């Protein structure tokens, strides 16, 4: 049968490609964003306990009440915003499902969605699969800051939503208060929605404060914020996240969410609810990952790689302009095959494949892993 593809230009994810290349070549995998160290034994024991106690059937579609209740408490304590656990929080099968459910709920044929490249690779396909039109605005090194006048220039009568990501993957940059205030002005003036990808909310460094849309009442009233337990608790394979949004928006998200996955792993939800009752389990993460960032930077000190500022996430972007004029895709392949360290080329996150000769390394790894990689990188 001749079946036309709905995503004809989309192949295998760059993360899968580079991870397979790392495995095939015996390379240290600093490409895909997952930790190589164990998660807390306490939460594993909690999941096991809840399984043994018989909590193995469907959870409620929006999520277990226990987990939504503790999330509401954490949001209020963190961002000063009181939210209703029953009507404004939805537990999702990871942040990616949350993002897709939001787009499916609000984006129709020919609706335009503004996003900033380099952008995470699921954004554009999710928009296109739902009939929308991604409107790409490039941001550039070294700080990847947003030109809000450029955003205003891109708004048309068909613009429906603006997507932001802070702390940013792949760049490690963060939005500041002035950015959120500019965004607030724009969305209020043009009656737009905001999808805010905040999965690295706890991974922010150097004394900075995460600027969530939830901190700004007028902005929060038309925003959907997406979070990830996998990123927060080093358990990416559990695929558990959540969406926080006003009730009138949450109602629509739940309509799509229930037909995409219906509900999320029950014992994991109950374990997360209990684990989050101890604030130390998530409040120290910024310090933990800042130490890893600083350790990795120390390992490449004296090399020909130039690190760009990294204020959040667990990714360090480096320039290799002093080493080679190869494309970043070719450089990543060469690094993996010939030097046995895998990274992600940043150009793949740009719709127009802008190549600034940058590579992204994941430093969510054991110190011995980072030290081995650093020893190699210093010699290049």
Automatic annotation (TrEMBL):
Keyword entries, A-Z: Aminotransferase, Pyridoxal phosphate, Transferase
Gene Ontology molecular-function annotations: transaminase activity
Cofactor: pyridoxal 5'-phosphate
Record domain Aminotransferase class I/classII large: where: 28-373
Domain of life, source organism: Bacteria
Signal peptide stretch: none
Alphabetical list of InterPro entries matching this protein: Aminotransferase_I/II_large (IPR004839), Kynurenine-oxoglutarate_AT (IPR051326), PyrdxlP-dep_Trfase (IPR015424), PyrdxlP-dep_Trfase_major (IPR015421), PyrdxlP-dep_Trfase_small (IPR015422)
Family annotation (Pfam families): Aminotran_1_2 (PF00155)
Official protein name in the record: Methionine aminotransferase
Organism: Ohtaekwangia kribbensis
Upper taxonomic lineage: Bacteria, Pseudomonadati, Bacteroidota, Cytophagia, Cytophagales
């Amino acid at each position: 049968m001749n079946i036309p593809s709905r995503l004809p230009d989309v192949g295998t994810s760059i993360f899968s490609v580079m991870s397979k290349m790392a495995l095939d070549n015996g390379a240290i995998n600093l490409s895909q964003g997952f930790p190589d160290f164990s998660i807390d034994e306490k939460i594993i024991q909690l999941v096991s306990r809840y399984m043994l106690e018989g909590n193995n059937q469907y959870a409620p579609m929006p999520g277990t009440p226990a987990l939504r209740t503790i999330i509401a408490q954490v949001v209020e304590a963190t961002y000063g915003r009181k939210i209703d656990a029953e009507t404004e929080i939805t537990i999702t099968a990871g942040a990616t499902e949350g993002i897709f459910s939001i787009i499916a709920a609000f984006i129709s044929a020919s609706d335009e969605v503004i996003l900033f490249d380099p952008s995470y690779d699921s954004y554009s396909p999710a928009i296109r699969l739902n009939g929308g039109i991604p409107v790409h605005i490039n941001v550039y090194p070294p700080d990847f800051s947003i030109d809000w006048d450029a955003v205003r220039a891109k708004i048309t009568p068909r613009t429906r939503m603006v997507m932001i990501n802070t702390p940013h993957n792949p760049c490690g940059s963060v939005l500041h208060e002035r950015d959120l205030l500019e965004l607030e002005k724009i969305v209020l003036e043009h009656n737009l929605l905001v999808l805010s990808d905040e999965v690295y909310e706890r991974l922010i460094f150097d004394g900075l404060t995460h600027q969530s849309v939830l901190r700004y009442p007028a902005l929060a009233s038309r925003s959907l914020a997406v979070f990830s337990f996998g990123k927060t608790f080093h358990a990416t394979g559990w695929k558990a996240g959540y969406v926080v949004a006003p009730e009138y928006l949450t109602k629509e998200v739940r309509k799509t969410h229930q037909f995409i996955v219906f509900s999320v792993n029950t014992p994991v939800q109950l374990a997360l609810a209990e684990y989050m009752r101890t604030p130390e389990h998530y409040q120290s993460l910024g310090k933990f990952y800042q130490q890893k960032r600083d350790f990795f930077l120390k390992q490449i000190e004296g090399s020909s790689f130039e690190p760009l500022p990294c204020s959040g996430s667990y990714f360090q972007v480096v320039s290799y302009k002093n080493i080679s004029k190869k494309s970043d895709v070719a450089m990543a392949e060469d690094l993996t095959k010939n030097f046995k360290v895998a990274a992600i080329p940043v150009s793949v996150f740009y719709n127009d494949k802008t190549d600034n000769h940058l590579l992204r390394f994941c430093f969510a790894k054991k110190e011995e892993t980072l030290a081995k990689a650093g020893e190699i990188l210093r010699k290049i």
